[in-house]
Specification:
By secondary structure, this protein is mainly α. It has one domain. It is built from 9 helices and no strands. The longest helix has about 30 residues, at about 175-205. It is globular, with a radius of gyration of 19 Å. Bound molecules: protoporphyrin IX containing FE (HEM). The site of protoporphyrin IX containing FE has 24 residues, from helix 2, helix 3, helix 5 and helix 8.
Length: about 210
């Protein structure tokens, strides 16, 4: 049992600071002129990686909580999800501002033309309602069930993130395949949990 004060007063601020480290690190490297020969590509890829990592970390909270019995983990989930959104926004901005010079017609053309950009953009759009409804007030307004149903979009968003990565790599698919495997494990666990619950409920009714 972990005291509530310890979670709010120590753990949450700690996770917040740790989640900002990848961002601080890339900003530091940018100022130190240490982004390699193609700085825009480095920035774009780095922020894309962290978007996907935060999505998967957020999805891992519930399985971890169930397996370990550490129920306090749930209190970190909203922040981790919001960090996924934060990194997705930075990722999109590196693309839109640095790569496309915020040329809106060109960006729209690119979204329509290149399937991996289409999928990435759709995932970003789907993240917006989740970020907007992440507050306690919005959970109350929507009601637990509707809120939960809406937030199941995170599965689709994560699949979109992995497909986006798989479609953009040209030859070596090892890295996106690893993310796909982790995602399959996380989604598979949830499916198993739901089926187990349904079987038990049916058994109880019989
Ligand atoms: C949830 C949303 C998204 C996720 C999870 C995501 C994830 C990723 C990942 C993992 C990479 C590859 C990084 C690497 O090579 O190591 C990447 C690259 C990239 N993403 Fe995204 N992305 C998302 C949204 C977007 C959006 C909205 C755009 C633009 C409209 C975008 C444009 C790009 C581009 C241009 C690249 C680099 C392609 C290249 O270097 O060939 N992404 N993204």
């Amino acid at each position: 049992m972990v005291p509530r004060d310890w979670i709010g007063g120590v753990l949450k601020p700690l996770v917040f600071v740790v989640s900002l480290v990848p961002f601080a690190w890339i900003v530091w490297r940018a100022f130190a002129n240490d982004l390699g020969t193609n700085p825009i590509e480095t920035l774009n890829r780095y922020t894309g990686d962290w978007t996907l990592r935060f999505l998967l970390i957020t999805l891992a909270v519930t399985p971890l909580r169930r397996i370990s019995g550490w129920h306090w983990l749930i209190r970190l989930r909203r922040m981790l999800g919001l960090f996924a959104f934060f990194y997705a926004c930075v990722h999109f901005l590196t693309y839109a501002l640095l790569d496309q010079y915020f040329n809106l017609p060109e960006i729209l053309k690119d979204i329509a033309k290149r399937p991996y950009i289409t999928v990435g953009f759709a995932s970003l759009l789907l993240l917006i309602p989740l970020a907007l409804t992440s507050t306690n007030a919005m959970v109350r307004r929507l009601g637990g069930r509707r809120w939960q149903r809406l937030h199941r979009l995170v599965y689709l968003i994560s699949v979109g993130g992995v497909v986006h990565f798989l479609w953009l790599v040209k030859s070596d698919i090892r890295e996106p395949a690893l993310y796909a495997l982790i995602l399959a494990g996380l989604l598979g666990y949830r499916l198993w949990w739901e089926l187990r619950g349904a079987t038990r409920a049916a058994g109880g009714q019989a």
